Amino acid sequence: MTNTLIFIAIPCLCVVITSVSAQDAQAVSQKGDAKREDHCNKTVDIYEDVSSPPLTPENMGKPMTCSYKFRSFRGTPKDWILRIRFKKFKVGTLLNASHCHGGYMQIIDGNARTDLSNRKEPGLFCGEIEHPQTFISETSFVKVVFHAENFTDQTYFSFDSRAEQQFEVYLRYGQHPELYPNRRGQVVAGSYCNRVYTDCRLQTCYVQSPAYPGIYPRHLQCTYRLNTRLPFIKLYIENEEFNIDGQRCENIMVCPMRPISSGSDHCPYDYIRIYDGKDATSPVIGTFCGMGKFPYSIIGTTEDIFVEFVSSPAGPLLSTGFHFNVGNWPGHIETAGTKNGTCNWILSNEDLLKSGDSEGIFLSIAHWYPPHTTCTYLLKGRPEQIVRIYFPSFRINTIESPIVPFDGDCGESLTLYDASWADDARIIKTFCDTFSKPMEKHDFVSTGPAIFVRFESKTGSYSGSSLYYWAHYDFFNNTRFGVPTGSSVCDEEFVSWKTSKGSLRSPLNTLVYKQAPDATVAEAIKCRYKFLTDRRLYARILLTVNSIGFKEHPFNNAPCMSCWEDKLDKLVIWEPASMRNSSATPRTGLGGGKCICRTPNTIRLKTGPGHPPSRPIMTLISTTEQLYLEMAVEASHAASSYFKYDAPLFEASYEFVHGPLCGPTLLPMAEAGEINYPNFEALGYTRLPRAVHCIWELRVTPGRDVWLHAEKISFITKDCRDGHLAVYLPSNPDRPFISVCGHNVSALQEMPAFGEAHLTPSAEATVGHIPPQTVQIQFVGPTTPAHTAIKIYWTESFRLPRNPDGSVMTSRLIDDSPAAEGTVEGCAFECPYTSYFCIPKRLVCDGAVNCPPAPPGSGTNATWSADEDPQLCATKTSTQLDYYKLGVRAGSGLLLTLALLCVIQRYFCCCCSCCCCSKRRRKELAY
């Protein structure tokens, strides 16, 4: 025989444990069934299944009333409630939605001993259900009464029950009900469902229909007085479903679903009515009923809202009621600005700054408003700003509760204008309730300093706008350093005929970083800056990158091994002359250019007072009339890292340099040559600038050394601000090899010859291409041709091979005839004071110094260069001295001196307009 062990355990109740056999248990069950068949008025145990009495000849066609009381356990605490699940139900018929014909059911919640009860007027349920429905009591005492005037097989019911504690009914009491004992309000004494809520805050006040989330009782008239500490009280739905008289089943075959409606005409039976104030004498916001999603929020104009809930005396066992939460509109959304009238606003950048917020907010109308309502918002920035507006939340619904019906399109609309008024020629976007799609988190950006927003409603509404939106707006500095160009919002162009120098930085308008480029076209957000000059004005572009401020980011921390190809935030600088496509970014193997990634060597921290300024990251001088700088930011993190990030991602300065006074900028490879400043021929064709910056690039023949000799250097004063000259070498292009001003001009006379170690560029500079060997000479100073003069000679030297002992192979010296095998072509004269400097014989005694002088302390007191020794030149004169070349050089020097004197006289005569200048001469000079 099998024994069955039965446990019954209820908290705070006695636990009964009974051991019976299976046969005994079956006998007891059959005996209980027999009793249930005999009568239906009984006390029901918790967890017991109950069904309607069986149809017998004795009860068929006769009236029947069944009453069921639920047995309460001895010692059951008051916070226990009953959950009754009706699995089947067909009792009576609902007529005219107000009367039960042929039968009904009553649910009596509470009794004379409980604090609340509906026993005086419990109301009637009738009709039929297709799915199980649940009633969840407000008390621990419930009585259910069924009545049929004519009991047939078309009258039946079945239900079961169970007891639960409050914390188990989460949808009603929320989380931690012990912390919020008055979350459902204070019950008015002597009532079943009248409640008062004080100082409501988010999640502290639940406004619910009785028995929520189950079926609410019939014949109710409940009132809820709601209060918050701040104005603009907000009543909003807690979940997605609102079901007050959502279905009326006169017949199970016709049980229509009623959408949420407003107005007394649409809600004659069950409804809630919301008043804008403390009681029913306040203005009515709306009357609502039906089933579906309730309007998102209802906002009162004060700290109080009064809600009335009414259910008809008779109805179906279908409607589950409502659950509202109460709070106040955060900050009551009196957005920073000036209000004109009921809902017209001027929202300026100044008002936003005063509020201390980075973004302003305005909302759609959430409460009732009359027909033909128009609300406007003028978003007004400063002249250099642009305006952005976007909608974090936007829903477009049909107009559910119009005050005045409207059958056409656009009963309600929202229009954005790229102007400060409703200019129909400058509409950005129009949203209508009938045909538009909402656009959430999409930026609408103006081209000027204002956006005008207008909302119009032809119908009015009880429940708020059908265009529900939460609008954010802000202002962005759209100042450009150059001229906007191209289709990008951040490409700029800098031209020499507008300004000779200036500065630039990453875009001030950080909306640029929210642009999502097409993944098939670009992988990064790029801003391209083009520098363009006219050789007649300036020959070169000097670009200095002063700082880089790219953020540390998981996508931006990879080592910059190949800057061109790595997916990193970076700066790329190149010249189009060396590119196949001038608009393309250079890549390895396609020519020159610089690529700067974010590495510790490229970051420059700001220095405080008393600290020397930090050195620039890079200075680059163009060789052509065009130069490009491009900032590339990886799109994967651009918005999260740099949107509304005020610090610059890079800072740079530019200057168009090497004007006509400087003469040629590129000095091609040659055995010897000279640099002269100023170029007096340019004085008659250009206006003198206040300052001048000359950059000469001396190309050196591969395999040769070069020596520079300053023939003449003169400055206005000894102050470096009145002029300085510097020589840069490829081995260290960031620092000058030598820099002189008026006080140390003699240092140029001690300049050595530059060999392979000086002329070989760094490994970084040779990535992707082999740059030529160059020596760069820069002069910066004021424009004073009469007092500043520079004349520098240069001479290339052949590199002689060396013997095993390190000495020079002088046996390789040959004359100017074609070289024999194993000799150095064109090298015939070894300069005596160096062990490697060798020049062609044709440069000896040509009137210019071509050999380096004796080093200091060598004991040599010669006042002339070795290649210009009088004895050597006398010998060459008697044998093979080239008078023609000497004559040409001497004549050139004489002509240059005469030209200098003439130009100086013309310059000062013209500038001073002195009496020595004739009218005709001044006219010619002016022309």
From TrEMBL:
Which InterPro entries has this protein been placed in? CUB_dom, Non-NMDA_GluR_Accessory, Sperma_CUB_dom_sf
Per UniProt, the keywords (alphabetical) are:
Disulfide bond, Signal
Name this protein carries in UniProt: CUB domain-containing protein
For this record, an example GO cellular component is: plasma membrane
Task: Report if keyword Disulfide bond is assigned.
Answer: yes
List the source organism: Bemisia tabaci
Signal peptide region: 1-22
Gene3D superfamilies recorded for this chain?
Answer: Spermadhesin, CUB domain (2.60.120.290)
